[in-house]
Every structure is written in structure tokens, then in C-alpha cells.
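Working notes for the structural subgroup meeting. M.R. asked for a predicted model of this chain before we commit to crystallization trials. I am recording the input and output together here so anyone reviewing the notebook later can reproduce the run.

Input as submitted:
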Amino acid sequence: MKNYIVYKCTSCGTEFIVPRMYVDYSNNYVSCPMHGKHNKIIVIGAYYKLRDCMESRAYKRNEHGAIEQIKNSKP
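Returned structure, recorded in C-alpha cell form:
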């Protein structure tokens, strides 16, 4: 069983990663973390390690020390 699930909101295009242990399958409902009212969510992928789902993207630290995505190498 894979530990991390990557979702994408089809309304706003936000991609987010959720650990499987925090997904409540009893309600069968996942909403967008940016806009709670968006509920058109699709699964992009599932991974064993968090590093695996971050490999296809490039990240760097900004001037305040936070990590931000600078490039998405997916086609």
C-alpha cells in the first residue's frame, strides 16, 4: 500500500499531497485545501516515499527560507 496520494483540483488546478493515513475513506470526500468548496478532485498518483513524488519537480528555498516550486518538468 502506497503511503502518499497526489490529488489535483480540476476547478482551480491546485495539486496537493496527502498522507494516506489522514484520508478518511468512510466519508469518501476530499476537498481542495485552497478553496474548500471545490470538490472535483482527481488522483494523479500514489507513492511510497515523499521524495518520489517530488522528483519530477524542481524546488528551491526563497529569501525567507520557505521551499517553493520553481519548475514543473511534467509535460
